[in-house]
Amino acid sequence: MRALHLLTLGLLAWTHAGWGVFLRLARRAGLGRVTDGREAAPAPPAGPDAPRVSVIVAAYAEEDAIAATVERLRAQTYPADRVQIVVACDGSTDRTAERARAAGADLVLELPRGGKHHAQAGGVARADGEILAFSDANTLWQPDALEQLVAAFADPRVGYACGRVSFLAGDGATNQEGAYWRLEMALRRLESDWWSVTAGNGAIYALRAELWPRLRVAFGHDLALPHQTVRAGLLAVDRPTARASEPMVPSIDGEWRRKRRMMNQAWRVILRGGEDGGLRGGLLDPTGLPPAYLAALVSHRWLRYASPFLHLIALLAGVVAARRGRLLSPHRLLLAAHLSVALGAAASTRWRWRPFLLCRYYVSMTASIAAGLGDHLRHGTPAGWDPAEGTR
Question: Domain residues for 167?
Answer without folding.
Answer: 47-251
